[in-house]
């Protein structure tokens, strides 16, 4: 097997200095575009790759970003993670990922491990149990360290870090406005995440809408136990006139859809459904569920942009909170 070519060998072959090659590969403004192009093309031709270990030692950096995800089976988190990895590579970073399975203890251990200098920055989505038990001490402890942290999706006032999320309140109001315009006057809100910050925010928006529109009957059904939530939905839809259902997460939306099928209800004619879905799977099924698009690919990309900026400029007390606007995608389950 041939040994990888070195900067010294590239310099010798091209008849330039070691410094010129190094600066060209790092896109230094001190080197002309013509020289940089020549060096980069030759380096690519000879299969040159930078020695990440040497770079890490030189810069006291790991070129690694830690990512903590609550549930890899959730398609939203899986899509965010995929785009974090793709975008991190474009910056020359790799990721190391921990899955907490929505458990507080797993989250605490993951943060403890990753905050010991193994990564240059952290991208985290807190677990359901963290919110349920209202325990944020492990996050507060990491604020005293030099590792930059960014929270995505499940932002909360107890988490004083940079963040990227969607406008959950506005998303629900937009969906309700649409249903109202189509004549819905009895609407059920279903939630499988009653303790999580996004679940609370979406419920808050629903309750405000019902308060502002007293002619609308609003029913809130919540449980993090799926069979229990399905039973609650079944009982309400079977015994009451329900014009529309709004799921605040992927699981509650799926359960609402299953209840419509179980009762043999006709979409558009008898009932409407809007919620959150696995977009890839939704394209392949019928009926396709109308949904709120959270743009997980954008969340992943922006999260990386923000954490890399924080790594490069150094950790600071100035917080940056990015909020992404969602859109409503109307499919087969609503007018």
UniProtKB/TrEMBL annotation:
Keywords: DNA-binding, Transcription, Transcription regulation. PROSITE patterns: HTH_LACI_2. Residues 5-59 form the HTH lacI-type domain. InterPro entries: HTH_LacI, Lambda_DNA-bd_dom_sf, Peripla_BP_I, SBP_2_dom. It holds the Pfam family Peripla_BP_4. The keyword Cell division does not apply. One of its GO terms (molecular function) is DNA-binding transcription factor activity. PANTHER family: HTH-TYPE TRANSCRIPTIONAL REGULATOR GALS, LACI-RELATED TRANSCRIPTIONAL REPRESSOR. This is LacI family transcriptional regulator.
């Amino acid at each position: 097997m041939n040994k990888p070519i070195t900067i010294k060998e590239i310099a010798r072959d091209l008849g330039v200095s070691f410094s010129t090659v190094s600066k060209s590969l790092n896109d230094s403004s001190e080197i002309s575009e013509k020289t940089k192009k020549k060096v980069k093309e030759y380096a690519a031709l000879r299969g040159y790759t930078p020695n990440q270990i040497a770079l890490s030692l030189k810069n006291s950096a790991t070129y690694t970003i830690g990512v903590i995800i609550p549930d890899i089976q959730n398609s939203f988190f899986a899509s965010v993670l995929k785009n974090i990895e793709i975008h991190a590579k474009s910056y020359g970073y790799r990721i190391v990922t921990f899955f907490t399975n929505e458990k507080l203890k797993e989250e605490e251990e993951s943060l403890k491990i990753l905050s010991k200098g193994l990564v240059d920055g952290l991208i985290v989505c807190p677990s359901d149990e963290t919110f349920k038990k209202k325990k944020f001490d492990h996050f507060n402890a990491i604020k005293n360290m030099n590792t930059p942290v960014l929270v995505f999706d499940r932002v909360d006032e107890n988490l004083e870090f940079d963040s990227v999320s969607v406008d959950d309140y506005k998303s629900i109001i937009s969906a309700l406005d649409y249903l109202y315009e189509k004549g819905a006057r009895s609407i059920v809100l279903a939630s499988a995440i009653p303790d999580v910050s996004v679940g609370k925010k979406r419920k808050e928006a629903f309750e405000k809408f019902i308060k502002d529109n007293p002619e609308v009957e609003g029913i809130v059904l919540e449980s993090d136990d799926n069979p229990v939530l399905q039973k609650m939905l079944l009982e309400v839809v079977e015994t009451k006139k329900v014009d529309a259902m709004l799921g605040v997460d992927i699981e509650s939306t799926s359960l609402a859809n299953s209840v419509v099928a179980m009762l043999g209800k006709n979409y558009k004619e008898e009932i409407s459904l809007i919620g959150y879905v696995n977009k890839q799977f939704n394209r392949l099924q019928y009926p396709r569920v109308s949904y709120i698009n959270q743009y997980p690919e954008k969340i992943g990309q922006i999260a990386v942009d923000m954490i890399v900026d924080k790594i490069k400029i150094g950790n600071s007390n100035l917080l940056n909170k990015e909020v992404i606007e969602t859109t409503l995608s109307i499919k087969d389950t609503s007018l």
